[in-house]
Amino acid sequence: MTLPKMNRVLLKLSGEVLMGDQQFGIDPAFVLELAKEVKAAKDTGLEICLVIGGGNIFRGMAGAAQGMDRAQADYMGMLATVMNALAMQSALEQLGVQTRVQSAVQMDQVCEPVIRRRAERHLEKGRIVIFAAGVGAPYFTTDSGAALRAAEMNCDALLKGTSVDGVYDSDPKKNKDAKRYETVSYGKVLADDLKVMDASAVALCRDNDIPIVVFSIREKGNVAKVLSGKGVQTVVTDHTA
Ligand code: UDP
Fold first, then answer.
1. For a surface tag, which of 53, 64, 179, 235 has the fewest beta carbons within 10 Å of its beta carbon?
2. pTM flag (> 0.90)
């Protein structure tokens, strides 16, 4: 499917992709490679909002499973996303790309708070805005944060870069006959519980008619390829043409 002409996108990266080949944490060399991908996308003339997860450092659910208070663990997860945002900011600025980090949990000494009009101004000036700390509330994920910012910032699409190259009808790591969808509706993703993003994020995109483009960020040059319609991806949308 050909994607509609895009001027502004929200790029969501799971925290896990910042680990590179490590089991945990941040691999600065790998973050720099990711930053090159983001820069390549920006160099095509797009305005870019960026949301990065925190799963490479801490996930609230994992903490809760080990007996921690869930809300407390989720706040720790949010702090992890701020660390990732700062790492990506540093890598992008190493490449000469201007950025601002805006956090949904206020941290004046470290970054700006989320202020939509200010974020608009940054984008107009050609800066990338990295939105950290998800929606700023526990019991949510950065997928919901990404959907929320995509809607709020009037993005033309939500690009979800993960370690899989799209949405499959079953887990491609477990089933070699798993089939990748070219396009799939929001309704099917929700009804079949397909692993794209969590349900609240998918519903928010559906309600605001924001296509979700799922692709692999691990393949070099793939963001630009996906944007030009030549990449391997799945588009979640209710428009089939
Ligand atoms: N989190 C949260 N509220 C938000 C965003 C994130 O509580 O709005 C917490 C939650 O504990 C989550 C963690 O931050 O597990 C890391 O985010 P996420 O799991 O979305 O990261 P990803 O899987 O994308 O790396």
1. 179
2. yes
